[in-house]
Amino acid sequence: MKKFTAILLILVMMFSLSACGAKADEGSSDALPTIGVTIYKYDDNFMSFVRRAIETKAEGKATLEMNDSQNSQATQNDQVDTMISKGAKALAINLVDPQAASAIIEKAKKADLPVIFFNKEPETSVLASYDKAWYVGTASAEAGVIQGELIANAWKANPEWDRNGDGVMSYVLLKGEPGHPDAEARTKYSVETIVEAGIQVEELELQTGMWDSVKGKELMDAWIAKHGDAIEMVICNNDGMALGAVQSLNASGYFDDGKFMPVVGVDAIPDVLEQIKAGKMVGTVLNDAKNQGGATFDLALNVANGKDPLDGTEWTLDEGKAVRVPYVAVTIDNIEFAEEAYK
């Protein structure tokens, strides 16, 4: 009987320890804060890398409630409501429409939730209207300036690109989404920087390709049919449209038998780095997806845990409550640097 009682006591103790261990495990899981994240559309080339960077950084640190807004602001608004109702401790929002930031802030205010906007920048006044709102992205003008410098330097180094020898760079420009701060700034400052470098320019075409490679190809097809070799430079607000332009140029016989067309983009996504190595693009500008995603998560995790957004990080905020991740010009000469950013 005593032996039976001893065995029973041992079994009870083992069960109790197992139960305590299970509760400890449950507690550690529950301790991970939930961060609600929306991406304006998953199939955007650049944003897919930002999303991956956020997911990679979140491993073991937070639970992510990820959402594809499918380029619909109404869908994104509903997703924000759902994330709030599910108990998210912070929001990380890649806006579909930057003008919708005030509506998102109102939702966050009512729930007393911090919000980190990223990649698409709200108006400074809107961001300032809520003490728990911040932004992670870039200085929009910087990409245009760096792209313009890259183009100007390459043009001067390759006088044969001026096919008719008139001393004027005749260009076409694939613009991103109209009204998007990055699209407007990249368009303005890239051309202004080229002119400031002492190069005369002629705009043959400027139309929106909506950041999309298919639209970029369609526009380039039409421009080649209309202008042919009168085009001397293809300027693209992003690499997605640049890839579409290269596809169109390939189909028209460029990049074979010495027939070349200079194409420059922005983002430095891996597919474009391969095109640079193949000699089919002059260069691009690194829009650092890894660090944009990393900074977004760092700030979101801090505020979800009730800390200062910059606590324990190397990021800094400017006067507009924004973390600015710098751009870098990329050509064949520093291709390894850009490749490292996507590892």
TrEMBL record:
Annotated localization: Cell envelope
SUPFAM superfamilies assigned to the protein according to its UniProt record, in alphabetical order: Periplasmic binding protein-like I
Signal sequence bounds: 1-24
Domain Periplasmic binding protein: 35-308
Keywords recorded for this protein, A-Z: Calcium, Metal-binding, Periplasm, Signal, Sugar transport, Transport
Stretches that traverse the bilayer: none
Classification via PROSITE patterns: PROKAR_LIPOPROTEIN
Principal location: other
Quaternary assembly: The ABC transporter complex is composed of one ATP-binding protein (MglA), two transmembrane proteins (MglC) and a solute-binding protein (MglB).
NCBIfam families in the cross-refs: PRK15395.1
Protein's recorded name: D-galactose/methyl-galactoside binding periplasmic protein MglB
Gene source species: Fusibacter bizertensis
